[in-house]
Amino acid sequence: MIDPITVNNISVSYDGNEVVKDVSFSFGAGSLIGVLGPNGAGKSTLMKAMLGLIHKDQGDVKFGSKTVDSMRKQIAYVPQRSNIDWNFPIIVKDTVLLGTYPKIGLLRRPRKADKEWAMECLKQVGMESFANRQIGELSGGQQQRVFLARALAQKADYFFLDEPFVGIDVSSEEIIIGILREMQAEGKVIFVVHHDLSKVKKYFDGLILINKELIDAGPTSKVFQSDNMAKAYNREFMIDGLEVSM
């Protein structure tokens, strides 16, 4: 059974400016969670703080009773495409194979079974025919699918994706959300920093809505309400015919 993830009072600041303030929430197994908020709200910062990739002023994250450091092998992270060096000389199948390293160790050579698993992950995202292509030669959607395949190769229980749908084609987006739903059905916990509000109700069963501070967190039906959205975005919002203005 995959343990719930609980965030307690996370705060993060840069150069004395608080960018995430006292955020707490909890989600259980089988959750597909959208992280929403306007530009500069601290969405990516919150995700990185949860993973221990940046310094926190305060707060902690628990996977059941375990810390993030003890759960590294069970956590897969897909950063924003803009943060990746696409000129790095590596082919697609080797990129995916990197996902097996947390389990086999950096000093061990991948076995035949590891290579076969990497190819299976490429097949899951429909990219097996691109196995020998340089990663930089792919379109944005193809690159995102390869990095999802790398995450799948980890055989993780917790997945964190930062803006996976930005700048990609419709077909790739449909493939990616389909795989995320399959993982959710297997009990995985998936966090997705997301910006397209028109697809929130279709994609996610849970939401975290922030603008530096937490506006609300929980089931999508509870969080994705006009008054919450108006607070977060500081403008009028209409959801299901209900309009709220600030």
UniProtKB/TrEMBL annotation:
Q: What is this protein called?
A: Manganese transporter
The record's keywords, sorted A to Z, are:
ATP-binding, Nucleotide-binding, Transport
Superkingdom of origin organism: Bacteria
Identify one Pfam family in the record: ABC_tran
- Tell me which InterPro entries the record gives: AAA+_ATPase (IPR003593), ABC_transporter-like_ATP-bd (IPR003439), ABC_transporter-like_CS (IPR017871), Metal_Ion_Import_ABC (IPR050153), P-loop_NTPase (IPR027417)
Q: Which residues form the ABC transporter domain?
A: 5-237
Family label: Belongs to the ABC transporter superfamily.
Alphabetized SUPFAM superfamilies for the sequence: P-loop containing nucleoside triphosphate hydrolases (SSF52540)
Query: Which PANTHER family does the record cross-reference, listed alphabetically?
Result: IRON TRANSPORT SYSTEM ATP-BINDING PROTEIN HI_0361-RELATED, METAL TRANSPORT SYSTEM ATP-BINDING PROTEIN TM_0124-RELATED
**Matches recorded under CDD domains:** ABC_Metallic_Cations
